Amino acid sequence: MSALHQALDAFFAERGPLAMRLPGYRPRASQIELAHAVLDALQQKGARLAVEAGTGTGKSLAYLAAALLTERRVVVTTATKALQDQLFLKDVPLALAALGELRGLAVDEGEPAVVLKGRQSYLCKLRFERLSAQPTFAFAGDAREWPSLVRWAAATATGDRAELDLPEPWATWSDLDARRETCVGVRCPHHDACFVTQARRRAEGARVIITNHHLLCADLRLRHATRTSDEGAGFARVIPDADAVLLDEAHALPDVATDHFGVAVSTSALARLVAETRRFADGLGGDQRALVLESALVADEALAALVVALGHQAGERTRLRPQVALAAARDRLAAALVRLGRALAPPDDERAAPADDGGARAAERAGVQARIAEAADELRFTLGRALDDARFVVMIEPERRGVLVSAAPVDVAGVLADTLFHGDTPVVMTSATLAVGGNADAYLRKVGVPPERASARVWSSPFDFARKGALYCPKDMPEAKDAAHVARFVDEARFLLELTRGGALFLFTSHGALKEAALQLRPIAAALALPFLQQGEGAKHKLLDELRRADGERGAVLCATRSFWQGVDVRGRALRLVVIDRLPFDVPTDPLVRARADLCAARGGDPFRDLAVPDAALALKQGAGRLLRDVDDAGVVAVLDGRLRTRAYGRTFLEALPPLTRIGARPALAEFWRRFVQPSLGGGAT
């Protein structure tokens, strides 16, 4: 056994440094084995390790201890900001302190681990300076938050928005963040003190960089574009070069990659860009100002014509097909944008004159021009080449003040194989939900890793699922499409809420189903004196905080959709019931789902067996995983869809779920609640 493996054993020992600092800690074989497997993979050239570690395994401390012990630079990415902040603020300091106590091991001084977020998470000092000179707000609520933001801006050392308790969304932040589109780079008077610059400098010197899948994919796309360009510069990057990559919440990577390796055109964003150009023109000379304003008017008119040509009124996204009228509107707007960019170009005499501001305004002008040119290119691709490219599916959907057109890659396996999994850098993928029936092959293929070239391990949760939780699906429950399903769903929900007295998270597969059910669940909750919460009636974190606070005999009821199926961590008796309205299959008519099914069939596969069922089983696993988050948690997962029992593929779903006690009748569930759940909850729920 190597010295590093011996150090891991000492780290996790019963009387080791971790145990001394973590109350209630007990060594777990699965956690130690996981740490050793990650340590081996991080040091192995070209390693591809997929790890499913059930809730309670302690995977975060396992992989952090392994990463911090190596002499390699490791990039750790997560799908959610919540986990990113937990790792940096809680788990990393704990691991570093414990490692520092190991005799003979020296933990680097300074910042061995740093957190790195996207530019839009950081405050831009120049934009803040300008807005402070004349604060204007689109919404009255934003003005109320302004004084606290000013105080924070004067004191913050990181500029990270996460330090502020701002509403989500807070529209004014888009006028303050350090997004690339508005950055003037080295010509900014605050460049050396820029929060983004400082964060990246710290990352260059760190051994462990904690970031997120979005930033990772942005980095991969930029590196890939540079590597495959004619110039082949190879230096563009967002994240420092790493010796290894470790993805937590790896199940979310395919969806994030789909967003980042696609191209999107937002009509509302284009309108804002034209408006920003018009505002910039106010500081120009008379003749050029008039030319820019005239060009902006032409662009506005062309944009309005494109919106008419798109003509999307439906609430869901649909596939866009080539149309003559659409092509004409696209070309008209692209030409108008090119004209606008040319109008903004500085005159020759201005280019030669020295700038009083160190070139900041010239850099800002160049930035606006570059964004206009980029918008024209994206427009031509999304509404042009992508429509005729079988590798992409072009979709249109409504947004708050316009429409969004996106060209999404049908298959991200290829692009991930050419980027993240290109070369010999070790990559570890871990999550509580990667495998179906103990097999991670479907996930590996989805991210572009041939299963035969990867190692896959599954460590089950140490929780006593059979005694702590029940899986309830009534034996005669109608299937989701049955006409009797809605009435029966409401009746079962009433029974479950009467039994548990709230502490409930209802998970729905669509917003329509959520709204329909909420109308009937709200009066049931009121009759039982249970606080009722509904997605859309408040920010996600505030709804979850209210659910956590209602941890007494009568808990709250929260109804939500897919964004709450993962990344939700509510412990104790505040969450003792999770209800899932139906098996979470993707909508088969969704353009991207249909395109991927067609691709699967063209390759000789069975889209339902190879795509739909594994994806839905993992989604159900994620939803059910919201219930038991700690060793003392207990409760019920109710899947109110008869297909779990009646269809042959129901076995696949059951094999994906943790080994909860399966119950199909109300009396048996009530008895299980009385004997096992209620005592675990301290007798508070009756």
Considering the chains and any ligands shown, give keywords for the structure.
Fumarase C, Chain B, domain 1; single chain; 7-stranded parallel β-sheet
Brief overview:
By secondary structure, this protein is of the alpha/beta class. The protein has 26 helices and 18 strands. The radius of gyration is 27 Å and the shape is globular.
Description:
The chain has 686 residues and is an alpha/beta fold. The chain folds into four domains: 29-112 and 206-259 and 412-459, Rossmann fold (3-Layer(aba) Sandwich); 119-194, no CATH class; 263-409, Fumarase C, Chain B, domain 1, CATH 1.10.275; 465-680, 3-Layer(aba) Sandwich (Rossmann fold), CATH 3.40.50. Helices cover 47% and strands 12% of the residues. A seven-stranded parallel sheet has the order 3-4-2-5-10-1-11, with helices on both faces. Strands 14-15-13-16-17-12-18 form a seven-stranded parallel sheet, with helices on both faces. Strand 8 (392-399) and strand 9 (402-409) form a beta hairpin. Helix 3 (29-42) runs parallel beside helix 4.
Q: Total strand count, please? A: 18
Structural category: alpha/beta
Neighbour order of strands in the largest sheet: 3-4-2-5-10-1-11
- Which percent band covers the strand fraction? 5-15%
Indicate the CATH architecture of the largest domain: 3-Layer(aba) Sandwich
Report the radius of gyration as a whole number of Å: 27 Å
- Helix run count: 26
The dominant shape is globular
Low-confidence stretches: 230-235
The overall pLDDT, averaged over residues, is: 90
What is the CATH fold-level name of the largest domain? Rossmann fold
How is the main sheet built? 7 strands, parallel
- State the domain count: 4
Please give the CATH class of the largest domain: Alpha Beta
CATH superfamily of the largest domain: P-loop containing nucleotide triphosphate hydrolases
Terminus-to-terminus distance = 52 Å
What helical percentage do the residues reach? Answer: 40-55%
